[in-house]
Structures are given as structure tokens and as C-alpha cells.
Amino acid sequence: MATRKPLRPREELPQAAPKDSLDRELIALLQANARESVANLGRKLGVARTTVLARLARLEASSVIVGYTVRLGTEASDQGVQAYVGISINPKLQREVIKRLTRLPELRQLASVSGEFDYMALLRAPTTMRLDALLDEIGELEGVLRTTTSVVLALRVDRSA
């Protein structure tokens, strides 16, 4: 009788990105519809249902997939206008500016970036008038040197949760 090797503890599993194009396609399908059945995923990918289950288990165990969620449609989500704002900041006042920006309820994301700006903010305001006032508030913060805004006209692909 053959003996089985013990499974490696969870902490030893690799924390890696998707291994191949099948993993990436599977993730893209789940981002479009996290409730898609394993059987349908297999059909769309051209692989067996058991292959999809094994891939999902591996992606979950290695923390590539950390959860499943619901995205609200435009009717159910906040109506309004979104804008990306590039922000240049005086380095000496960076912490204070970030603290004040995080207090804005309209701030959805704030990322430090390379290039022309120090930070890129994603804002959502109920109206263009509120967005305009919000941009004035940000521009008047002590330490903000310059902002440049791009209003989102249409969302072509949204894979965020």
C-alpha cells in the first residue's frame, strides 16, 4: 500500500501571480461574473469542471483570489460624476495633505504614482457643481502645489469590486 505525502502547511504555499493564460482567463471571467457556475466556466475555457475547481482552489490557497463580491449597477450605485485628479504636493507637507484628503467622503482611491504627479486621486461627486467645489477645496489645501483633473466620460471596462 502506497503512503501519501503530507500536505504542505498553508504558509508554505507560494504567494504567486496567476501561472498561465488559463489562470488569467479564469480570473477575468470571475471578475465579470463571480457567480458563474464552475460548469459554465469550464465550458467557456474549454476545460473540465474538475480543472476549474483545482485552479480555483490553488488560486484561493495562494491568495491570488481572496474573495468574491457584488458590484452594484449604475442604477443602484451612487449616481454622479467621477474624476481622476493628479496632485503635486510639497514633500514637507505630504502627511498633512494626505490626512486631509482622506477625510473627504468623495475620495474613492488615492495612489502615490511615478511621473508628473505625486498622487492620483479618484473622486466621485453627486454633481459637477460639487466636483468643482471639491477641486477648489483640494487646490486650497496647504501643501498642494498643483492639480490636473480628468473627468470620466464613460467606463469601458470595470473589474474592480
From TrEMBL:
HTH asnC-type domain: residues covered:
20-82
Q: Which residues are in coiled coils?
A: none
Q: Which UniProt keywords apply?
A: DNA-binding, Transcription, Transcription regulation
According to the UniProt entry, its GO molecular function terms are: sequence-specific DNA binding
Origin: domain of life? Bacteria
Task: Spell out the SMART domains in the cross-references.
Answer: HTH_ASNC
The UniProt record lists the keyword Transcription regulation: yes
Q: Name one GO cellular component term.
A: cytosol
Does this UniProt record's set of keywords contain Transcription regulation?
yes
User: Which InterPro entries has this protein been placed in?
Assistant: AsnC-type_HTH_dom (IPR000485), Dimeric_a/b-barrel (IPR011008), Tscrpt_reg_AsnC-like (IPR019888), Tscrpt_reg_AsnC/Lrp_C (IPR019887), WH-like_DNA-bd_sf (IPR036388), WH_DNA-bd_sf (IPR036390)
Which GO BP terms, alphabetically? response to amino acid
Name of this chain's protein: Lrp/AsnC family transcriptional regulator
Q: Give the source species.
A: Piscinibacter terrae
